[in-house]
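A reminder from the course coordinator: this example appears on the midterm review sheet, so study it carefully.

Given structure:
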């Protein structure tokens, strides 16, 4: 099962952005230990050196969902600021948010069913089984094509129409993911952290 996980500084200062970078390294380590494949999809760099405003990763494997769940919610790094030594604040909050991976635009079985064409067209339309109903098995998307006299041509058009519907569906899924990710950047509860890390070594306290 593939999951997406976004780690975000949640509009916090540069120390929160640095925490995201430390968290990514820790996540790499935990993913490897649990035999989960981690891929970096997007990184939004910070103006601070070696820091990230956010990262989006894919997690793929039997334990991907459990790993993503451990990183979901408010996260806390307790450390004296390495960027502003005179700063008294030590608690730096950031956030983890899982998302479902967008659907694939192509692939999967398409089931075809021949049927008699209907509608205007005279005796030829009524007496031939040239019409085709195509169903994408994985999604249930179904179309009927009868514009051509040949069943072969109608199958070709039905396949193209299915692919277009799948592409539209994927685009909608990508747009929804983009909106969800943008919203997540503004949602972090500064308190009640689900995980806490300490010091420059980013040692987990759980």
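Designed residues:
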């Amino acid at each position: 099962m593939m999951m997406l996980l976004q780690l975000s500084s949640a509009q916090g200062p540069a120390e929160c952005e640095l925490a995201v970078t430390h968290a990514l390294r820790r996540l790499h380590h935990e993913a490897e230990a649990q035999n989960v494949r981690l891929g970096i999809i997007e990184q939004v760099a910070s103006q601070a050196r070696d820091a990230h405003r956010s990262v989006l990763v894919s997690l793929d494997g039997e334990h991907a969902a459990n790993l993503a769940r451990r990183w979901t919610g408010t996260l806390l790094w307790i450390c004296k600021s390495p960027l502003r030594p005179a700063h008294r604040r030590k608690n730096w909050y950031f956030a983890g948010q899982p998302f479902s991976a967008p659907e694939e635009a192509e692939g999967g079985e398409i089931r075809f069913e021949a049927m008699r064409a209907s509608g205007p067209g005279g005796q030829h339309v009524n007496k031939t089984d040239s019409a085709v109903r195509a169903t994408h098995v994985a999604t249930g998307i179904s179309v009927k094509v009868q514009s051509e006299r040949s069943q072969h041509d109608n199958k070709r058009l039905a396949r193209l129409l299915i692919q277009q519907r799948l592409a539209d569906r994927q685009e909608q899924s990508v747009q929804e993911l983009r909106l969800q990710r943008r919203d997540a950047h503004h949602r972090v509860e500064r308190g009640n952290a689900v995980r806490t890390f300490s010091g420059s070594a980013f040692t987990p306290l759980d």
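The chain has two domains: 3-102+190-204, 110-171. The beta strands are 2-8, 37-45, 52-60, 73-78, 91-100, 110-115, 131-136, 142-145, 195-198, 203-204.
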